[in-house]
Amino acid sequence: MDETKKTLLRTIPKTDEVLHAIEKEHLCDDFSRPLVTDTCRAVIGDIRDGIMNGRIASEKGVPSAGAAAGRVAERLRALSCYSLRRVVNATGIVLHTNLGRAPLCEKALAHVVDVSRGYSNLEFNLEEGRRGLRYDHVRRLLCAVTGAEDAVIVNNNAAAVLLVLNTLSEGKETVVSRGELVEIGGEFRIPEIMEKSGAVLREVGTTNRTHPADYERATGPVTGLILKVHTSNFRTVGFVEEVGLPELVALGGRTGIAVVHDLGSGSFIGLDDYGFEREPTVQDALATGVDAVTFSGDKLLGGPQAGIILGRNETLERIKKNPLMRALRIDKLTLAALEGTLMQYLSPDRAVTGLRVLKALTEDPGSVEARAKKLVRKLKSRLPGDTWNVTIRKGSSLAGGGALPAQEIPTALVVIVCRDLSAAKLEKKFRELPVPVIARVFEDKVVFDMRTVEEEEFPFILEGLANIAGKE
Ligand SMILES: *Cc1c(COP(=O)(O)O)cnc(C)c1O
What we know:
3 domains; alpha/beta; Aspartate Aminotransferase, domain 1; globular; seven-stranded mixed sheet
């Protein structure tokens, strides 16, 4: 090691000196002693690393004990700020997996708080005064709304698919069309989940065309399951053919083989009434007599992360007996949020107005534009017109979350341009606000898609922008 480094290393403040400075100034009174000491050592370690790698090359670069104490306090303050925070989703992607998918409705939130603040009857049958089943709380609503015979809930739809495959097809073949061997994103691929479940994949048909005869030829004594997967996040067009669920159910009936449909983003509401292409609802799928369907709680359903399995009694009984159920079981927070969400579905109108995901998807473009105009008026009255330019233009939103792929939803975009900031810099500043606003960059401009922004979120945007403009 060269001499300068050796000399510099000797000038690093000692842990005791830094701790002393912290105590004298009461910098870290709210933190435990071991936490403060460890942070002190980490800060000193960073200074040492800086000297060793040449980043600190003179004595001026080595902080005093007081300055190091300040760094320790700063790190501890950062640690005590929440990392998981609310944000404003101005991307126009309604079901954005990175932004937490479906926002919860008031009823769900209130129910979570009420049920989890104290004890609850999570697994306690109040009528009989003995042990109950946690799934029963939502099963009654799910069955009433969809007509299913029984329901099972697990942590997410990936877990639901795993559980179904493992229960019905472990060591046996699961027949799937080659056109449905999808990757959903975020490490969920049908062939991989199948391998983990112990089911053996039996591919049939081709990427673009699968016929009933393909399924018939592939089924036999080694078949455990016929699985149909909703190709949620892409669409094949042109020379394509798939076998419908009713035909598969008929084949299952003839052969005694279970048929399951992974709907992915199952909806209880027919969105074709709102200008979308017809996609089968959960009720449509169940009406075919399928053994079970699986779908997510936090996609089109508009609730918490959960995997919902609905279907026939015999099939669900087998699933409930699987020891994996215990490993995949959902907690009371999720159950409460799901029960609160499902209450909205007792009246479909209430679901469409009360659940933010459905409201955002079905709101007419004129109403989105009116909200955009309102925001623009407020922004213009607050921003200096010589540096900032705010306009409205038409654009399109996406459902996201593997729902309604390739269907563009007309929307209104608020375009924000600052003379002194590039789009990339401005987008970053919005991301760094106390309540971050996640925007889109389109044609080198920052845009807010107003379909996913509600009026009650305006204050975050207005205060945030005042904050950014004030510093410019
Ligand atoms: C989204 C999706 C899944 C995974 O659901 P999660 O709730 O995200 O685990 C599985 N299958 C399909 C078809 C999907 O669209």
